């Protein structure tokens, strides 16, 4: 349940608000809906991973991956190892990691907050 | 315990969010950049304008029709709406680029990229481009047409900015981490200043002064003459000057500042005029064309970048309909055609930047010696904001000549070439505000008289304006504000205390060289000398090498029944005129060396057809050897590399003339070999051997694949902001610096256009090495590059009316005003 709520609310919120709005959303949902520490983390991380990957996939496919090629070329100039992996793999991983860490720890912090004040 | 758990998880969550929302060293804010809702993912694809657009400021409905090359064809009912729409559309495709040029020209790059740009910024700020642009922008009166055009264009750019959110911001802003600023007429003028610097911003004065001090006037006259041995000037030899010249100032007793003492001797200077910055244009008259009406061609050679320096547009109102290449940030069409005429430009290489040695009274530099008295210096403090650092202040000293570019020897100069303690006099500082009107009237011109009238408005950087119309007139005019100089004034550093060394005025505009319908049936220019020495005024001692001009003229001379395709083939001509001039003699000398009989490089050169075609090996050996040879002949005598007193090498023209006609000149002896006197033959043979050795070391033994000219030359079109991965490398093509197809490693034809005039409707072709969109994630970012590399052209869709049907039309946007 927390997973779905974070996913839907942050999808709508991010249309109007900066990306970091996922942190307070995950925090609040973690606080109000989560039943365990692990559950809150995975709900937060999973929701943002799902949402970001799905939307980025859509954007990337509908633009033939042209922008990703450029960004890949840009980063792999100094981070050479990126040249050896398809950009789809490496850049979706980096993006998922960013979203997962912020979403996961925010939801966890929310859950822990509830434990503290309960 | 609960508290610690909460506190730790909160710290990690908040910390991560904070860190990912800020730039990390060289890395941009990663959370922002990677978020699919606002980061780089949002910039991909072909983003087209909506079918309906409502914009505050539009008076009557404007139709914008996009063709299959993403060229907007704008149909407006009045000028204000037209330029408003132009500003909006250019910003939509090129916002980052146009702002980047203005940041560079005004010395503000450090604000966005940090400390690494500070020397460039200081240099550009001292050069005074921002100051001049500000004064020009302020000089307009409310009713000036130029002011109205600038205001409308500015409003259009700002209307685009107003609806721009972070997620739609060009990706470069996201990566570098800054926000676009409002546009203003001042910024458009900065764009023009940028062109003044690119085209007129070089000087060899201090290098020539060093050479003069070392060798004296006779040798300088001999090796650095005021007119080359071979030349084919823009105004055909024999053209009558149909005016009474004004008196030219007398040549003073001393034509250069006295050699500098050890203390003040300095030798750093601004970049010499870049040889790659050149262009071709020509028009053949009806007598030479298949259609019986003129055909005009133009290809301006500039640094090749993505986004491209040009943007194609059709601009139409009830009183005007013009198509061509526009400079982003600048209203109107710069190179193009309308129903009746076509025009193009190449740069005039006249000497319009001089340096004056300044004698200050004391270290405070508050006064300087001029005309027998101390004259006050104007002091201005320039402030530089630097990203991530404290702001920096810099004092700039202005004399009546112009700004002192650098004043202390210890200063770190951005450009290795600025004379320390020297003031710059530059046509780029002229405050005439009518350049834009030159293009405004050309866009609307109907005949030769309109062309001549339009040129009176255009001042700097001086350009060779080629012209053709459907009344069968062709013409060319090296046009702009040209200083009225005494002979050789400014060939060397001038004396800032001597009034006779000041610029004394201007060549009357109507006496700029010009020719209409010459007997040879065509006009052309390739940056070579404007005229032969019979022209009554001194324009400069060195122009671009003659080869491109010679080749164009001989091709056009021979041409009959010319078509668009025959002119296109001239644009792509790879013939090496220099090789024709020297190769037979050189091969004879090389043949004297028995080792060359079995030398595959020698054989390749001997068999070469003298064309710089992409997959030939000959041009690789020849071009590299020519470079090497000049170093072998001249570097010991006129060192370019010298830290203390750098000089220039005599031109290739002079070098070839020496080899052919004065083979026993002392210059061939290498001064670095004390016990040996080298002959010309020795130098030719040894430099050839050295060239082949270094090519072999780099590329392996001679091989048609690895030694192919295109591989060795390797033309790159890099991103304007040098972002890796955003450019296009190793473009397969031929040509070279002295070739009509002037594609070098980094520079080349930045727009190729051929227009066939017609009584009813012209036919035009053109393209540039880039694409209409400035967005690196768009398929229209670099879609013209491959065709460009092959030397092909696109047919340009020049619409008669907005209702014209064409299967090339992709979409239409109607812009209406907000009620």
Describe the protein's architecture and organization:
The complex is a heterodimer of chains A (118) and B (819). The mean pLDDT of chain A is 93. The two termini of chain A are 21 Å apart. Chain A has one domain. By secondary structure, chain A is mostly helical. Chain B has 819 residues and is of the alpha+beta class. Chain B has 21 helices and 28 strands. Chain B has an eleven-stranded mixed beta sheet, with helices on one face. In chain B, strands 4, 5, 21, 24, 25, 26 and 27 form a seven-stranded antiparallel beta sheet that branches. In chain B, strands 6-22-23 form a three-stranded mixed beta sheet. Chain B is globular and about 85 Å long. The termini of chain B are far apart. Chains A and B meet through helix 3, helix 4 and helix 5 of A and helix 1 and helix 2 of B. Chain A: Keywords: Membrane, Transmembrane, Transmembrane helix. Chain B: One of its GO terms (molecular function) is hydrolase activity, acting on carbon-nitrogen (but not peptide) bonds, in linear amides. Chain B: Belongs to the peptidase S45 family. Chain B: Keywords: Calcium, Hydrolase, Metal-binding, Zymogen.
């Amino acid at each position: 349940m927390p997973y779905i709520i974070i996913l839907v609310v942050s999808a709508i919120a991010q249309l109007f608000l900066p990306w970091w709005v996922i942190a307070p959303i995950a925090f609040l949902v973690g606080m109000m809906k989560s039943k365990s520490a692990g559950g809150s983390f995975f709900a937060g991380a999973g929701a943002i991973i799902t949402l970001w990957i799905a939307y980025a996939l859509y954007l990337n496919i509908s633009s033939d991956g042209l922008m990703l090629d450029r960004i890949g070329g840009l980063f792999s100039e100094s981070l050479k190892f990126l040249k050896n992996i398809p950009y789809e793999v490496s850049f979706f991983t980096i993006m998922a990691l960013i979203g997962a860490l912020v979403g996961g720890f925010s939801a966890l912090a929310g859950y822990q907050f509830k434990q503290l004040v309960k | 315990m609960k508290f610690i758990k909460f506190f730790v998880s909160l710290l990690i969550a908040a910390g991560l969010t904070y860190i990912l929302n800020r730039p990390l060293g060289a890395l941009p804010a990663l959370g922002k950049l990677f978020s699919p809702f606002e980061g780089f993912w949002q910039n991909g694809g072909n983003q087209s304008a909506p079918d309906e657009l409502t914009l505050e400021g539009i008076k009557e409905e404007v139709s914008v029709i996009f063709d299959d090359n993403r060229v907007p064809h704008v149909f407006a009912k009045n000028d204000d709406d037209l330029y408003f729409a132009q500003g909006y559309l250019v910003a939509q495709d090129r916002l980052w680029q146009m702002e980047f040029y203005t940041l560079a020209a005004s010395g503000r790059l450090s604000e966005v990229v940090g400390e690494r740009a500070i020397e460039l910024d200081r240099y550009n700020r001292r050069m005074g481009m921002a100051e001049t642009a500000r004064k020009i922008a302020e000089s307009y009166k409310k009713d000036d047409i130029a002011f109205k055009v600038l205001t409308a264009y500015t409003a259009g750019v700002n209307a685009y900015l107003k609806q721009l959110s972070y997620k739609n911001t060009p990706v470069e802003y996201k990566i570098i981490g800054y926000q676009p600023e409002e546009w203003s007429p001042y910024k458009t003028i900065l764009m023009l200043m940028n062109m003044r610097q690119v085209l007129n911003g070089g000087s060899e004065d201090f290098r020539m002064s060093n050479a003069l001090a070392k060798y004296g006037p006779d040798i300088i006259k001999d090796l650095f003459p005021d007119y080359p041995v071979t030349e084919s000037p823009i105004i055909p030899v024999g053209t009558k000057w149909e005016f009474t010249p004004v008196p030219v100032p007398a040549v003073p007793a001393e034509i250069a500042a006295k050699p500098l003492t050890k203390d003040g001797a300095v030798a750093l200077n601004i970049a010499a005029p870049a040889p790659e910055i050149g262009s071709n244009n020509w028009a053949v008259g009806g007598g030479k064309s298949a259609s019986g009406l003129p055909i005009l061609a133009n290809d301006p050679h500039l640094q090749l970048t993505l986004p491209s320096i040009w943007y194609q547009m059709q601009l139409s109102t009830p009183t005007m309909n013009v198509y061509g290449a526009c400079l982003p940030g600048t209203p109107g069409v710069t190179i193009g055609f309308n129903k009746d005429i076509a025009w193009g430009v190449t740069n005039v290489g006249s000497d319009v930047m001089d340096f004056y040695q300044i004698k200050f009274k004391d270290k405070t530099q508050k006064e300087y010696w001029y005309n027998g008295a101390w004259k006050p210096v104007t002091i201005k403090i320039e402030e530089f904001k630097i990203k991530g650092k404290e702001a920096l202040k810099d004092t700039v000293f202005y004399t009546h000549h112009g700004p002192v570019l650098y004043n202390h020897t210890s200063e770190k100069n951005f450009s290795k070439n600025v004379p320390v303690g020297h003031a710059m006099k530059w046509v780029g500082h002229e405050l005439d505000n009518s350049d834009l009107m030159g293009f405004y009237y050309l866009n609307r011109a109907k005949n030769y008289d309109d062309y001549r009238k339009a040129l009176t408005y255009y001042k700097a950087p001086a350009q060779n304006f080629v012209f053709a119309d459907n009344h069968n007139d062709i013409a060319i005019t090296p046009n702009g504000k040209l200083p009225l100089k005494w002979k050789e004034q400014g060939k060397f550093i001038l004396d800032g205390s001597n009034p006779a060394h000041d610029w004394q005025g201007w060549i009357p505009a109507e006496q700029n060289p010009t020719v209409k319908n010459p007997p040879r049936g065509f006009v052309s220019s390739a940056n070579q000398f404007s005229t032969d020495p019979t022209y009554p005024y001194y324009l400069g001692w060195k122009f671009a090498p003659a080869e491109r001009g010679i080749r164009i003229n001989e091709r056009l001379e021979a041409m009959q029944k010319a078509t668009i395709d025959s002119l296109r083939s001239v644009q792509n001509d790879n013939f090496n005129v220099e090789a024709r001039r020297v190769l037979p003699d050189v091969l004879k000398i090389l043949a004297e060396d028995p080792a060359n009989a079995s030398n595959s490089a020698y054989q390749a050169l001997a068999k070469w057809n003298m064309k710089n075609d992409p997959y030939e090996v000959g041009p690789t050996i020849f071009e590299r050897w020519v470079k090497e040879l000049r170093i072998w002949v001249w570097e010991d005598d006129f060192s370019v590399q010298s830290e203390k007193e750098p000089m220039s090498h005599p031109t290739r023209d002079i070098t070839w003339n020496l080899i052919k006609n004065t083979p026993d000149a002392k210059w061939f002896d290498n001064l670095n070999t004390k016990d040996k006197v080298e002959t010309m033959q020795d130098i030719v043979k040894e430099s050839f051997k050295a060239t082949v050795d270094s090519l072999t070391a780099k590329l392996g033994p001679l091989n048609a694949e690895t030694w192919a000219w295109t591989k060795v030359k390797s033309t790159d079109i890099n991103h304007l902001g040098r972002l890796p991965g955003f450019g296009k490398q190793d473009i397969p093509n031929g040509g070279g610096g002295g070739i009509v197809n002037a594609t070098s490693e980094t520079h080349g034809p930045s727009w190729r256009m051929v227009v066939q005039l017609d009584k009813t409707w012209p036919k035009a072709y053109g393209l540039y090495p880039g694409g209409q969109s400035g967005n690196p994630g768009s398929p229209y970012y670099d879609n013209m590059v491959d065709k460009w590399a092959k030397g092909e052209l696109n047919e340009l869709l020049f619409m008669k009316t907005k209702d014209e049907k064409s299967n090339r039309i992709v979409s239409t946007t109607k812009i209406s005003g907000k009620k």
